[in-house]
């Protein structure tokens, strides 16, 4: 059976959820071979094996943290040369897409980004994408070279599928371009204790209607009652009420959770582009004419300052 | 020391318009109004700010696209860029990201550059891979997704805000930079700027000017094939209630029914 390379996104050995989802998709196409790089690479093996990796290629070197993107491209290229995979799958983070693009160019391959589904086919994997603010769905395939495909978080379920997960050291020779862009400083983001926005099963977002940074506390309280991530519309971020890292929409994050709760968000195209593929959509807005209500499974026309705290209380009561 | 900046820009269908696909499954650019991709305005803005802080900077805006794409160039010129290059050729229709990066890279080399500045992504394709592809093709450092950028003494520095951390980056020129919408509000063209733009040079190049064969680009040369396109079915109309004191409870009831609570 053909092997499929999966690029592992991990933090010091802790594998992030989108990588486990990639293993689910990779198993549809062939035998997953994971590539884990940098500090803690070896520690990823157990989690990867549990989710279907037959092999885990690892390489630890300071270059992965000290220089931007290119060392990782060099390593993936070495892995492709060693494995001759049927496809290369990479999580669709900002960095993941850059790594995948440069790899594709080096391999003389086509690239598909932000796939939301993958199917096996005799002529190579078929990727589903959601385009134009999710108003269209396209199915595409790479027609030249080894397909390089990046996949959005929440595109597949994480499934246990125990496999060998044999760890092998990958041999990497860095190119002379690897050290071109130096990372001179790194400030880790302060943890909020909430799930990562793009990976969360539930997202609670606030918009213009929240009307002030201090009022985001009620959005956060609702999010915490559900174990959800907090999002914000561009209007709320531009007003300085919430950090840009939490922005949902065309110029922010694109999310696809099981449940999306929009509070005080009108639903402009820029916002819809980032949340329209959510499975269940709920909105709370004063304006009955707000376009967000065209998308919802359940909507409440009302003042979010009444409805959201009441909802939070009710959830807490029900959860006991 | 002079500094030659090339800003890559894209002419895109208006996102607030009714965007759709043509019969050959490429983006329909005829039936919807186009404009300079909003995210590229930030790239033009950063180029202008760099030029205000140093001497002898020349800003060239570069686009690849049909005749109408000149509108995007004109907008960038009226914001303050010095000159423009329009790569236009019938054989370009249907070109994918890999092919676009080839055309842009050849044009950038022909124009001459010390610094390339791009937006973080286009507002139509939204792949966000062209800056990385340009760096790979040009063989120069990639300093991308910057929320802050500065150029001094042949070095570009910037801040890249990632999910896990905020990173300070540094590279020697020549380099390829991309900037986010957090890099600073783009200026509006002034009346004077709009008038001045009419006199600024716009060069037109075709594929032969760049030594690119037709089969390397276009729909035929693409590295990916779109098999089919389907309009997303409209979401079925949901339940909408008016809050009369029970809205929060009703919503909780719905969420419980869906097993979210």
TrEMBL record, chain A:
Domain Electron transfer flavoprotein alpha/beta-subunit N-terminal: 4-183
Needed co-factor(s): FAD
Textual note on the cofactor: Binds 1 FAD per dimer.
GO-annotated biological processes: fatty acid beta-oxidation using acyl-CoA dehydrogenase
Keywords assigned by UniProt, alphabetized: Electron transport, FAD, Flavoprotein, Transport
Any coiled-coil regions, as ranges: none
One Pfam family in the UniProt entry: ETF_alpha
Superkingdom to which the source organism belongs: Bacteria
Residues given in the record as FAD binding sites: 208, 233-234, 247-251, 264-271, 285
InterPro entries: DHS-like_NAD/FAD-binding_dom, ETF_a/b_N, ETF_a/FixB, ETF_alpha_N, ETF_asu_C, ETF_asu_C_CS, Rossmann-like_a/b/a_fold
GO molecular-function term, one example from the UniProt record: electron transfer activity
Family label: Belongs to the ETF alpha-subunit/FixB family.
Known function: The electron transfer flavoprotein serves as a specific electron acceptor for other dehydrogenases. It transfers the electrons to the main respiratory chain via ETF-ubiquinone oxidoreductase (ETF dehydrogenase).
Complex and partners: Heterodimer of an alpha and a beta subunit.
Identification of the protein by name: Electron transfer flavoprotein subunit alpha
Organism name: Streptomyces swartbergensis
Automatic annotation (TrEMBL), chain B:
Any Gene Ontology CC annotation: cytosol
SMART domains for this protein: ETF (SM00893)
Pfam families: ETF
Molecular function in Gene Ontology: electron transfer activity
Keywords assigned: Electron transport, Transport
Record carries keyword Transport: yes
SUPFAM superfamilies: Adenine nucleotide alpha hydrolases-like (SSF52402)
Domain of life, source organism: Bacteria
Annotated InterPro entries: ETF_a/b_N, ETF_b, ETF_beta_N, Rossmann-like_a/b/a_fold
Protein function: The electron transfer flavoprotein serves as a specific electron acceptor for other dehydrogenases. It transfers the electrons to the main respiratory chain via ETF-ubiquinone oxidoreductase (ETF dehydrogenase).
Family in the record: Belongs to the ETF beta-subunit/FixA family.
Record note on quaternary structure: Heterodimer of an alpha and a beta subunit.
Record-given protein name: Electron transfer flavoprotein subunit beta
Natural source organism: Streptomyces swartbergensis
């Amino acid at each position: 059976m053909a092997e499929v390379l999966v690029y592992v996104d991990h933090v010091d050995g802790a594998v992030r959820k989108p990588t486990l989802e990639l293993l689910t998709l990779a198993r549809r196409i062939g035998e997953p071979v994971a590539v884990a790089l940098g500090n803690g690479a070896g520690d990823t093996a157990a989690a990867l094996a549990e989710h279907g990796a037959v092999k885990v290629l690892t390489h630890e070197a300071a270059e992965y943290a000290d220089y931007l993107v290119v060392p990782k491209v060099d390593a993936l290229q070495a892995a492709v040369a060693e494995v001759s995979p049927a496809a290369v799958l990479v999580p669709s983070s900002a960095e993941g897409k850059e790594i995948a693009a440069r790899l594709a160019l080096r391999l003389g391959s086509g690239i598909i980004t932000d796939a939301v589904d993958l199917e096996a086919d005799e002529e190579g994997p078929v990727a589903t994408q959601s385009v134009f603010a999710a108003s269209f769905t396209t199915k595409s395939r790479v027609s030249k070279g080894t397909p390089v495909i990046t996949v959005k978080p929440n595109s597949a379920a994480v499934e246990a599928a125990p496999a060998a997960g044999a760890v092998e050291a990958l041999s990497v020779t860095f190119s002379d371009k690897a050290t071109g862009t130096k990372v001179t400083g790194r400030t880790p983001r302060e943890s909020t204790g909430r799930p990562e926005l793009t990976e969360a099963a539930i997202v609670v977002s606030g918009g213009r209607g929240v009307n002030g940074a201090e009022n985001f506390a009620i959005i956060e309280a609702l999010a915490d009652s559900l174990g959800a991530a907090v999002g914000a519309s561009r209007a709320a971020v531009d007003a300085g009420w919430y950090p840009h890292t939490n922005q949902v929409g065309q110029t922010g994050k694109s999310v696809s959770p099981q449940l999306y709760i929009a509070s005080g968000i009108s639903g402009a195209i820029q916002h819809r582009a980032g949340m329209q593929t959510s499975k269940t959509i709920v909105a709370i807005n004063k304006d009955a004419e707000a376009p967000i209500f065209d998308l919802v499974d359940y909507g409440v026309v009302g003042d979010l300052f009444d409805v959201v705290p009441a909802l939070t209380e009710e959830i807490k009561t029900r959860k006991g | 020391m002079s500094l030659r900046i090339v800003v890559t820009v894209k002419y895109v269908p208006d996102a607030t318009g009714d965007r759709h696909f043509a019969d050959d499954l490429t983006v329909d650019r005829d039936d919807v109004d186009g404009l300079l991709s909003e995210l590229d305005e930030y790239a033009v803005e950063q180029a202008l700010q760099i030029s205000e802080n140093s001497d002898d900077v020349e800003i060239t805006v570069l686009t690849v696209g049909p005749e109408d794409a000149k509108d995007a160039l004109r907008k960038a010129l009226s914001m303050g860029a010095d000159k423009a290059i329009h790569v236009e050729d019938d054989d370009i229709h249907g070109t994918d990201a890999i092919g676009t990066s080839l055309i842009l890279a050849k044009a950038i080399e022909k124009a001459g550059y010390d610094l390339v500045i791009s937006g973080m992504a286009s507002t139509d394709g939204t792949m966000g891979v062209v800056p990385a592809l340009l760096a790979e093709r040009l063989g120069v450092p990639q300093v991308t997704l910057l929320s802050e950028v500065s150029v001094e003494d042949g070095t570009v520095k910037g801040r890249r805000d990632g999910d896990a951390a905020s990173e300070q980056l540094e590279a020697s020129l020549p380099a390829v930079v991309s900037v986010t919408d957090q890099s600073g509000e783009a200026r509006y063209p002034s009346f004077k700027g709009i008038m001045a733009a009419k006199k600024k040079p716009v060069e037109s190049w075709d594929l032969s000017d760049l030594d690119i064969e037709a089969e390397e680009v276009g729909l035929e040369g693409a590295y990916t094939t779109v098999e089919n396109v389907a309009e997303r079915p409209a979401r079925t109309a949901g339940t909408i209630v008016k809050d009369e004191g029970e809205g929060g409870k009703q919503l909780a009831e719905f969420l419980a029914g869906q097993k979210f609570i």
